[in-house]
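Here is the promised in-class demo. Please do not try to memorize the tokens; focus on the logic of going from shape to residues.
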């Protein structure tokens, strides 16, 4: 019963000092909004990445050139002793496991694709692929067909385009099949269009043009091509065995000396996920630090306002004590006021943060919508904690006031 009375008195006090309560709540809301917003954006992007990994399956692993990192910022240096196309051809023939093996090589991730008077921005990619690449990497054909065995074996100038390429180069109702597109001074006939897949950054799957691998090899005279093999194992239980077999075979093909480290890298999909988790962990720590600093400032402001409130209501405290109010009752009243102000700011900040976080995720090309109930719940508990910490000293001071001296206060 007393608790309900104290809550009603806290609401009345907040209404009586609307501007002061609003400013304090706004400071709390900004801190919570920063925390929930950053965490929501990270969760939404992570959901999008994880769904993309699910499309590939957990039984995939990739073989790439060995890259070394050095320097203050961990910058990648030039690749040494790259894997060749012939080495991967031998590897595909020798790997004694059941599954699909695809080989690809990126020509560039910053090309301008042209068709007649239309052209894309210079951030589209062209990738040389074999017959297994599309299925191994979760692509689905929407229109047209995939490469034929003749087109692949002869390296013909044909292409399969992704969604954004079609939107940029063709009219809405125009059929792109059998039309020509160009890049790097060469013309390619479009034979297929892919379903939307999504992606982030330069590797956006919807900004890609795929050409036969042998056709891509023709660009080796102009630039260094880096080949990647993706192995999709039929039985996930045999993944570790397949990876060890792949490592042994490729070491023999590349003539790696006994006792020396691999001259290539093997990564499974969950290792890619763990790398992304490490990156998001750093972002979460940064968001948490921003929120803590903001909430620290807000808590100091709240404490100051509660101290002013105690001074302004000294006579009221004296009257309450003269009528029998205990120090505990006075302390609880002021604590509840501080907590109530924090909860108002926390609730507003949490839902604003969730909305802003999802908007940021959309700009990062994530299709996931996340309502972070966990972070909203955490933010509410944080607000209660801030209210208790900020309101305890003023509440304690109010509870210790002498009733006679309080009644004399002007």
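The designed amino acids, position by position:
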């Amino acid at each position: 019963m007393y608790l309900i009375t104290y809550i009603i008195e806290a609401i009345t006090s907040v209404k009586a000092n609307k501007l002061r309560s609003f400013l304090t709540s706004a400071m709390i809301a900004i801190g919570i909004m920063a925390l929930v917003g950053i965490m929501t954006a990270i969760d939404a992007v992570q959901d999008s990445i994880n769904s993309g990994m699910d499309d590939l399956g957990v039984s995939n692993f990739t073989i790439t050139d060995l890259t070394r990192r050095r320097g203050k910022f961990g910058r990648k240096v030039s690749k040494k002793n790259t894997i060749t196309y012939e080495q991967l051809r031998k590897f595909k023939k020798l790997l004694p496991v059941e599954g699909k093996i695809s080989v690809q090589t990126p020509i560039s991730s910053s090309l301008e694709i042209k068709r007649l008077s239309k052209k894309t921005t210079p951030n589209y990619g062209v990738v040389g692929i074999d017959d297994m690449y599309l299925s191994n990497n979760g692509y689905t054909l929407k229109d047209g067909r995939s490469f034929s065995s003749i087109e692949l074996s002869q390296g013909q100038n044909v292409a399969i385009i992704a969604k954004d390429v079609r939107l940029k180069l063709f009219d809405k109702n125009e059929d792109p099949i059998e039309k020509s597109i160009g890049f790097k001074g060469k013309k390619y006939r479009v034979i297929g269009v892919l379903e939307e897949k999504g992606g982030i950054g330069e590797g956006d799957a919807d900004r890609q043009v795929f050409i036969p691998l042998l056709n891509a090899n023709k660009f080796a005279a102009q630039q260094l091509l880096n080949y990647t093999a993706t192995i999709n194992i039929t039985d996930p239980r045999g993944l570790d065995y397949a990876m060890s077999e792949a490592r042994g075979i490729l070491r023999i093909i590349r003539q790696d000396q006994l006792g020396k480290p691999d001259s290539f890298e093997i990564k499974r999909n969950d290792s890619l996920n763990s790398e992304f988790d490490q990156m998001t962990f750093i972002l979460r720590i940064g968001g948490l630090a921003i929120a803590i600093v903001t909430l620290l400032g807000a808590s100091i402001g709240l404490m100051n306002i509660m101290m002013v409130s105690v001074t302004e209501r000294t006579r009221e405290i004296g009257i309450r004590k003269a009528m029998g109010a205990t120090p505990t009752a006075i302390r609880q009243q002021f604590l509840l006021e501080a907590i109530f102000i924090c909860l108002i700011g926390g609730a507003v900040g949490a839902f604003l943060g969730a909305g802003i976080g999802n908007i940021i995720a959309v700009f990062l090309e994530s299709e996931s919508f996340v309502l972070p109930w966990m972070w909203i719940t955490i933010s509410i508990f944080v607000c209660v904690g801030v209210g208790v910490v900020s309101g305890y000293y003023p509440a304690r001071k109010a509870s210790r006031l002498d009733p006679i001296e309080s009644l004399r206060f002007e």
